[in-house]
Specification:
Rossmann fold, six-stranded parallel beta sheet, 17 helices
């Protein structure tokens, strides 16, 4: 296999760049979901509000491309898509190539573009070394170039169990990458909910780089809640409740939604309700067809995706969801009663988030291993009578996008000092 070149010859191109044009690059590995891409777009919008002339170039392999509205001066490089089978195991999702081949291709694309784009700041989402180390050649090349790029790491607070994360970071060289390349670590969460320095055993010397931003939410506004509620509850009695069901991309949402359909007749014995179910764009077509078939004759509206998820959440009397980062923080932002059913695997991320949010009394949760139609129905019925109320003395910090943008741009001060020295 060909060896990746260091690309030092590209520096002649870099030197001709006009100094006034701020350039930011982002890396968002999101081959089988929506959460990473949503956070990237939210932070990009906040950067634009602080620095309207900044150019932002995002590397992503999301199969949905620019699913979310992007800010002005923001463009997108589509990498060949890959997906994780388990800790440290990846595969190509579309191209008929071995993983070593596609990894080499992605490394080349990332390195060539970064060295020519010459960003002032490179914001890396959640993988210090990239998927299977794919960022390391580019990070090393930039370190030895004259670009003086400041590299910032953005971490969703809960990545997996601490044991799995620590092991993968050690095996894949993430700790070394943090020490060698990163000027700052932004955590998209709250320290008193999940302390990543402690959980992931970040060395004391690198812990000083860590800043907690709060949760990064969808920046859209929920303007259509009344219209959505009126549409789903048209001609229904005043005591009918609206349950909105969401699962982000939906790739692994079928078990939860299947059990919910089985549970609904029992719920209807005690409470009139209508379900608005958003399967997600990544649920396999045959599973969507099965849910549609079983929903016939029941007060269920099936949708693959919606343009305004916040308004759907705001319209609900109760939200039932999985516990992905994006969906979870949207529910917190809308302050809606919610029952979360985290996915059972392959990572511990969703289970951990749902448990911690439930401990804070922000949501209710059911462990997926304990989920049966009977228990589902009992919990929904109980929840309508005794909803979990948020703790007003301990609210979530939802200012993560603005804080992340400000902290990202503030590394330019240390870049100026580095260039002067």
């Amino acid at each position: 296999m060909a060896k990746i070149l260091p690309f030092y010859k590209e520096e002649s191109t870099i030197e001709t760049r006009k100094p006034e044009g701020l350039r930011i690059a982002m890396y968002s590995q999101d081959g089988f979901g929506l959460g990473h891409m949503q956070r990237t777009c939210s932070i990009a919008w906040e950067i634009y509000r602080l620095h309207e002339e900044a150019s932002i170039l995002t590397f992503s392999d999301s199969q949905l491309g620019q699913f979310f509205p992007i800010s002005p001066h923001h463009d997108y490089i589509k990498l060949p898509s890959i997906a994780k089978d388990g800790p440290g195991n990846w595969k190509a999702t579309h191209l008929s190539m071995s993983f070593p081949e596609i990894l080499h291709l992605r490394k080349q694309l990332i390195s060539h573009v970064l060295l020519n784009y010459a960003p002032d700041i490179f914001l890396v989402d959640h993988m210090p070394h990239g998927a299977m180390g794919e960022l390391l050649p580019a990070l090393e090349a930039m370190k030895h170039s004259r670009i003086h790029t400041q590299v910032v790491l953005g971490l969703r607070d809960i990545l997996d169990s601490p044991e799995v994360t620590i092991n993968r970071w050690r095996v894949e060289g993430a700790y070394d990458a943090i020490e060698r390349y990163y000027a700052r670590i932004l955590v998209f969460g709250m320290q008193d909910v999940y302390n990543i320095v402690e959980k992931y055993q970040i060395p004391e010397g690198e812990a000083r780089k860590v800043f907690y931003c709060g949760y990064v939410t969808n920046l859209a506004t929920a303007n259509n809640a009344h219209t959505i509620r009126a549409r789903f509850l048209a001609n229904k009695s005043i005591d009918t409740r609206l349950i909105v069901v969401m699962a982000g991309g939906g790739a692994d949402a079928y078990p939860m939604m299947s059990k919910l359909i089985d549970a609904l007749p029992k719920v209807l014995e005690h409470q009139k309700c209508v379900l608005a179910v958003v399967t997600g764009p990544f649920m396999p077509a045959e599973l969507i067809a099965d849910l549609n078939r079983r929903a016939e004759g029941l007060p269920i509206h099936m949708m693959e995706s919606v343009n305004d998820s916040l308004s759907h959440i705001a319209a609900a009397d109760l939200v039932i969801s999985m516990a992905g980062y994006n969906t979870s923080v949207e529910i917190l932002r809308m302050r809606k009663p919610a029952i979360m059913i985290p996915r059972s695997g392959p990572s511990a991320e969703q289970r951990t988030r749902a448990r911690l949010f439930a401990d804070k009394h922000w949501v209710d949760m059911i462990d997926p291993d304990e989920l049966t139609p009977k228990k589902f129905a009992q919990r929904i019925s109980y929840h309508f009578k005794h909803p979990v109320e948020g703790n007003p003395n301990d609210p979530p910090n939802l200012n993560g996008a603005a804080a992340a943008a400000a902290l990202t741009l503030s590394v330019l001060a240390s870049k100026s000092e580095r260039v002067l020295n």
